[in-house]
Amino acid sequence: MKLKKSVRHNIAYAGVVILLAFFRSIPRRTGITLGRLLALIFYAVARKHRENTIRHLTMAFGNEKSAAEIRRIARHVFLHFATAGVDAIRIPIYIKKGIDRYITTKNLHFLEQAHNREKGFFLLTGHFGNWELMGRWVAQKGFYPHVVGAVLSNPKLNKLLADTRNAAGYINIERGKAARGIFKAINGGFPVALLIDQDTRAKGVFVDFFGIKAHTPIGPAVLAGKLNVPIIPMAMHLKKDLIYEMESFEPIYYIDTGDKEKDIIALTQKCSDVCEQMIRQHPEQWAWMHRRWKKQPGDVLKKKYIWQVNSPVVIKS
After folding, report:
1. Which end of the chain has the lower number of beta carbons within 10 A, N or C?
2. 297 preceded by a cis bond (ω within 30 of 0)
């Protein structure tokens, strides 16, 4: 008999709480070793996720890397996210011990310069490296970021995630009703973190991503133009010594040429290019199992996914 949704949600919530308690009670390297072992098992049995990862890596690197190299990267994708997952679980411990023990930094003057303007700005990152740990570091250093994230279908897990983020010093803004929170944060002088490296239900345009058209959210471009604030790209990757390195990049600005359609597409392409640059440096640390190229030009898309400049509908390919 199929369990009621509320019962399933309660079971999932209890399982997550137990998992969090377990990985916080054992040494970090023990947890990483166990996590990686589970990742290898998952890689072997999760056929759909494995094949999606290999297929997407081949789409991106098929002309640059051999089939054997791509399969090796695919396996390391699962190993990386096991490590990042263990570290994300252990963030409260890292904050107590001193988060700088686990993170080095590079080129943060771009972030600091934007912060010193005492005006709000956007942080652009992706599902790369360890974005949760990066958010905690930025918050702990007094930047107090607001983060736009998807709402989980399980309300108890959604509250747990939001409470965990808020407790770490950065404010969770739920996607779908984020506009008011974003405007309030920017006008209050706070940075707002956005991720645009997935094919979601947000309105978007098709821009190049690894040489293939990818439906990409236009939120950062539209808001950067409307609010006249810069976009600061940031990334964090895991090094071989299990220490993370965090880096900020040159600001990206909305350039108003008088052609709104052209300007938004141009800035969205720049954001996509920066995300690709981050991923190319450490391809094993991005979520290749996600169907990034699911929508394609020519597909029949629901109106709410299509960006419009007043009227008519605009889709560029």
Report:
1. N
2. no
3-state secondary structure of 128: strand
Residue type at 43?
Answer: Y
Query: Which has the closest alpha carbon to 74: 49, 38, 106?
Result: 49
CA distance 150 to 172: 10
Closest C-alpha among 179, 101, 184, 171 to residue 139: 171
- Domain range summary for the chain, segments of one domain joined by +: 5-305
Using a cut of 0.85, tell me whether the model's pTM lies above it.
yes
- Alpha helix ranges (H) inside 62-108: 67-89, 91-97
Counted residue by residue, the chain has a size of 317
Find the Cα–Cα–Cα–Cα dihedral 273, 276, 277, 278, rounded to 10°.
130
Which of 2, 73, 81 shows the shortest CA–CA distance to 36?
81
Task: Give residue for tokens 């369990």.
Answer: 3
Written as one string, the DSSP assignment of 159-228 is HHHHHHHHHTT-EEEETTS-HHHHHHHHHTT-EEEEE--S--SS-EEEEEETTEEEEEE-HHHHHHHHHT
